[in-house]
Amino acid sequence: MEFKVLSTCGEARYGKLKGTHGETETPCFMPVGTLGAVKGVTWKNVKEMGYSLVLSNVYHLYLRPGLEVIEEAGGIHSFTGWKDLILTDSGGFQVFSLGSLMKLTEEGVEFCSHLDGSKHFFTPEFVIEFEERIGVDIGMVLDECTPYPATYDYAKHSMERTLRWAKRSIEARTTDRTALFGIVQGGVYEDLRLKCVEEITRLPFEGFAIGGLSVGEPKEEMYRITRLVAPNLPSDKPRYLMGVGTPEDILEAVEAGVDMFDCVMPTRNARNGTLFTSYGKVNIKAAKYKKDFTPLDPNCDCYTCRNFTKAYLRHLYVSREVNSVILNTIHNLHFYAKLMEGIREAIKEGRFAQFKEEFLRKFRGEGS
Amino acid sequence: MEFKVLSTCGEARYGKLKGTHGETETPCFMPVGTLGAVKGVTWKNVKEMGYSLVLSNVYHLYLRPGLEVIEEAGGIHSFTGWKDLILTDSGGFQVFSLGSLMKLTEEGVEFCSHLDGSKHFFTPEFVIEFEERIGVDIGMVLDECTPYPATYDYAKHSMERTLRWAKRSIEARTTDRTALFGIVQGGVYEDLRLKCVEEITRLPFEGFAIGGLSVGEPKEEMYRITRLVAPNLPSDKPRYLMGVGTPEDILEAVEAGVDMFDCVMPTRNARNGTLFTSYGKVNIKAAKYKKDFTPLDPNCDCYTCRNFTKAYLRHLYVSREVNSVILNTIHNLHFYAKLMEGIREAIKEGRFAQFKEEFLRKFRGEGS
């Protein structure tokens, strides 16, 4: 993997990331394709919107369709038909979300499948092996995702285990065709976060992620930790804020020097009828749109906005038509793609702060 | 509306149908867009497959989004964003499917909404008014859809009412921008069918449909009645076999002189994981496809077959991903489009019987 920062604007960075299967400009947003598909849109749609890096998930792919199927298909790219970059989250977040269905030891984590209750065991080494064998461009290490709230002691031990697992992950690597990112934990405790940064950046990872945020903490906490951690990560490596977020969150984090994002928000919200527009969020099922024959966002040139009205989108949503999912997802992912494009242009042109302010003023102004 | 038969091959006809919003070659298959959307595909997909005529449904559109919304949008084309031909079924079939929630009188039919139980009343005149006001290209009259089985007397009275309603429908017309098709009923009784043909073809309809088939009767009954009725309908007007059907059914009916078809089969089957291929039907959830890394149909050039394997389609289906619906529907509708294209070419080239035989030999040969 290669990564180059090409321009900066304050802490905000514009760059290019090149992996085994393609390249992307940064800051970038990764559409979430948990099971090897971005729900509601075809790869053709995803690519046409300008995305060349998507996220998938080891935990989910391990359960379905399983390592054997993906490997025999020739890897995750052959299996899914997505020809560009793929990053996989380790599944740590999913496993730790299982609560009582999960048992943590120093060796790894035992968990029961959310599908059939069957028992499985993930070690840091297994996650690396899985990611390398399915041939992702970027793999994330298995970490212990500290929940919120957590006591100082809990967060400390959890961060220390994450560090020990990070070392084991590095030792388990067998190829550089799959780049590997380390993850910074430490909860909302600044000294723990800085300690983790100090230790983990000694390891030869190709990039670093900020984990354990967007797990229920107040926004200010997320911003505070991001602003603390991001600038302390190596400037020549990509920085990835996991599971984030809203357009506001992304703008805040870019300002702190983050390069990569992923979030289910544009796709999940699309399915729930919540649409992002330049003038704020729109709840398309609202009765006021029943006879609103204007486009969702007149400033948007996506397929949905060019061809359909709010009234039609509302009709599809309230009628529970699958086409509601399709058209809403096309729009929301297009919106995120354009947001990231705007961010990159603004950084290149040295006007990121102004871009952020203008975007937010409009976005917060007329929401519904 | 204009219709011209341009070639024949036995009873089979190749023709062109021109309506207010476009034209289509016949024999044609109409994808079903009950609520103003073909479930699982965008209009762009539908158009790219070669379809220029889709079917929608008065009963469903009347309930959601309702006449007022569609009319204020400027009609069904403006509302849905589909720019080509639209035919609406009257909803008679849906209403009669409601059973005890429906009360039939000479004046019309009272029914309770399947959505909220609210009471409504359809008359033949109201259906025409609805179709004209939403601006469909072809409207179907309200008929009494005779169920199967039905006694001779029931079928006779039902057919006679359909004729009386057909006359009222003709009298209710106010524009020729919406063409109107009459419907032949009469159950499986040949004399009733012929009587209905004789009477209804005296009325100035732009086309005629064969109704009351594909309602549970044996295939041979459907074919027998189709072969009896179709050739007795006026040769200069389009003939439409409602709610049909499988590829076999369509080939049989084209051979009998039918020009138009509609059926939920390609779209509904897609959602259920049943896919049409040149070598028969494929149940994509079958375990044997788990590691089948070949395309669904190597003879198919649809987006799904060009880019994905059976193993991936199976994975999406068993994981209940919405993308399963999308990719399966793209394939099945593409398959039907290609079938109709093949049929039209064969008729033009005077080799329909041969086409039918070859298609069926292959289709029946290796199904799963």
UniProtKB/TrEMBL annotation, chains A, B:
Which pathway, per its entry?
tRNA modification; tRNA-queuosine biosynthesis
Q: Which Gene3D superfamilies match?
A: Queuine tRNA-ribosyltransferase-like
Q: Which UniProt keywords apply?
A: Glycosyltransferase, Metal-binding, Queuosine biosynthesis, Transferase, tRNA processing, Zinc
EC number(s) from the headed UniProt entry = 2.4.2.29
- Transmembrane stretches, start-end: none
* Any Gene Ontology CC annotation: cytosol
Residues of the active site: D89 (proton acceptor), D262 (nucleophile)
| InterPro entries in UniProt | ArchSynthase1/Queuine_TRR, TGT, TGT-like_sf, tRNA_ribo_trans-like
Chain sites annotated for binding Zn(2+): C300, C302, C305, H331
Q: Name one GO biological process term.
A: tRNA queuosine(34) biosynthetic process
Region of interest (RNA binding), residue spans = 243-249, 267-271
Role noted for this protein: Catalyzes the base-exchange of a guanine (G) residue with the queuine precursor 7-aminomethyl-7-deazaguanine (PreQ1) at position 34 (anticodon wobble position) in tRNAs with GU(N) anticodons (tRNA-Asp, -Asn, -His and -Tyr). Catalysis occurs through a double-displacement mechanism. The nucleophile active site attacks the C1' of nucleotide 34 to detach the guanine base from the RNA, forming a covalent enzyme-RNA intermediate. The proton acceptor active site deprotonates the incoming PreQ1, allowing a nucleophilic attack on the C1' of the ribose to form the product.
Report the PANTHER family cross-referenced here: QUEUINE TRNA-RIBOSYLTRANSFERASE
Q: What NCBIfam families does the record point to?
A: Q_tRNA_tgt, tgt_general
What's the protein called, per UniProt?
Queuine tRNA-ribosyltransferase
- The source organism is Thermovibrio guaymasensis
